[in-house]
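Posting this for the archive.
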Amino acid sequence: MNPTTTNVLLEEWAINDDVMRLREWGTNRVYALHADLHPGPLIGSAPSCSIQIHDRTRRTSRVHAQLQRVQGRWAVIDRSRNGLYRDGAKLDKFVLTPGIELGLGGGVTLVAESARLIALRTVLARMLGWSAASAEAIDLALRAIRFAAQRRMTLVLCGVDLVPLAEELHRLTLTAARPFVLCNPRRSTTELTWNPTRCASTGTAALAEAVGGTVCLTTRHLPSDLRDLMKESRRPECQTQLVVCSERADEAEVFNVAPIVVPPLASREDELDRLIEEYARDAAGPLELRPHWLSAPERVWIRNHMHTLASIQKATTRLAAIRQAGSMTRGAARLGISHVALLKWLRTHEFPPSLADP
């Protein structure tokens, strides 16, 4: 590993984009930050503030803080007696970067968001649920992902079929340009959701392959050198984040962090149609398909045969390729798999023969 590489590499997802809005923790209540705000916009409970906060705890001062532009970034300055907090630490002034939690006197917390962070939160809502009860879990997940990217903790996901979701989070945070390496003692190569993914059979080999990116583990197939992997990943010069996928929370206890629990689809029956629609929309995007290209019978088939988020994503991606290409043979070629492999997958999942060719 290159010891001269700085942790800035792992924070690019958080600083490449300017903060464009503040959002109250655990809610969808947002306050846009734009160029035509009154000079030196104020944050507080007073009606005169550009960003007026309604705080039931009454810990937010009438004029609590002031925003300023500093070298093209938003900075916030304390103007209160109750204190201003950056990720729980009391400070008089600091620059806002995406994900930072801005505490107002211990009452209201605002999350600084960029376009990329908003996209990440959208994906997390899809993973964890859209109900009001899921809102705080989504913000806790955002915090865990940010801390993992900054190597302040290991990111642990709990659920089933999680490696494709871990790869999607990697792509949205560190970007697809950085390596994503699956550490699996039983396999040497694999291909996951977004791109051919590197695979390593030992933890130390995975770290060597994933410099500046992500090593993904599954508790089902932990490497024999897990202890060495954990030790090396904590070294200051290590520039790789660690993500663990576990089917059960108790299996992840060795990592000493609260997991992001992805609920089973069986508990989200009322959201299933929306999930299918969103994945279908994503699959259609690069293929120039009409917005509602998925037929009603295809939706029923997905609902009945796909039981994880990753499987819905795979199904919509494959059906979209077939639809856009005009045949199964050309669709398989577009997907980079053989016609036989695609046909076998469709038959395994009992896809109706009448729908096999558009």
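The mean pLDDT is 88. DSSP finds eleven helices and 18 strands in the chain.
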